[in-house]
Amino acid sequence: MTGTAVIEQRDEQIVEALVAGRSVRVIQREFSLTVVELDQALERCFPLDTAARLRTIRGDLSRLDRLIEKFYLKAIAGDGDVHSGLLTVKAWERKAELLGLDAVQRIDLQIINPPQQVPRHEKIRQVIMNLRVGDGQQSNDGNGQQLNGDGSPPD
After folding, report:
1. CA dist., res. 133 & res. 112, Å (int)
2. Which residues face 140 on adjacent strands?
3. Residues whose CB is less than 8 angstroms from the CB of residue 18 and which lie 6 or more positions away in sequence, other chains included
4. What is the mean pLDDT of residues 60-89?
5. How far is CA 111 from each of CA 78, 107, 118, 119, rounded to the nearest angstrom?
6. In the beta sheet, which residues pair with residue 146?
7. Disulfide-capable partner of 47 in 1, 29, 52, 127 (CB 3.0 to 4.6 Å)?
8. Which residues lie closer than 8 Å to 57 by C-beta, 6 or more apart?
9. What percent of the chain shows pLDDT beyond 70?
10. What is the DSSP code (8-state) at residue 154?
């Protein structure tokens, strides 16, 4: 046997042990695996990439279609079989869920108004105006020097 065949056989034994209900720790000890080696074996057996997810969804959809076809006919035949009708509706719901066709059931919308504060630029403007106007009596040049009534600097 080649090295690849040995690894595949060991991976199959690991999957069988998992399906039999043995814990990951027991399997790790039984096969003398490190955590990384066990993770790699599980990744080879159960890949979780986009392609694997799509394969799984396609397989599930084909099986659901076969169930729907069979039980839909039973549900509408003669007086109709209530249990077949229920199973058909459940299969349709699952199919819609897999395909993402279900509409959003509920949306919780919350509008939060932030507390009203004086904007930073307005605070700066007020400080500048206070420097310019001073005590509200006479204008100054921004450095505390009083201006003449016409806005010109003092002589």
Report:
1. 38
2. 146
3. 24, 27
4. 93
5. 54, 13, 21, 21
6. 140
7. 52
8. 98
9. 83
10. P
Q: How far is CA 131 from CA 118, 135, 137, 149, 152, in A?
A: 19, 9, 12, 16, 16
**Amino acid occupying residue 67:** L
Q: Provide mean pLDDT across the span 10-25.
A: 91
Measured between alpha carbons, how far apart are the two ends of the chain, in Å? Answer: 107
Reading the block at residue 142, the tokens are 């921004």
Between 121 and 142, whose confidence is greater? 121
Q: Return the closest-CA partner of residue 43 out of 14, 2, 4, 1.
A: 14
Residue with tokens 């939060």: 112
Tell which residue, 48, 44, 16, has the closest CA to residue 31: 16
Distance CA 106, CA 27 (A): 44
Say if residues 86 and 77 touch (Cβ distance below 8 Å). Answer: no
Q: What span, in angstroms and rounded, lies between the C-alpha atoms of 38 and 46? A: 12
Residue 146 has a pLDDT of 65
DSSP assignments along 96-153, one per residue: HHHHT-PPP--------PPPP---HHHHHHHHHHHHHHTTSSS-B-SSSPBPPTTSPP
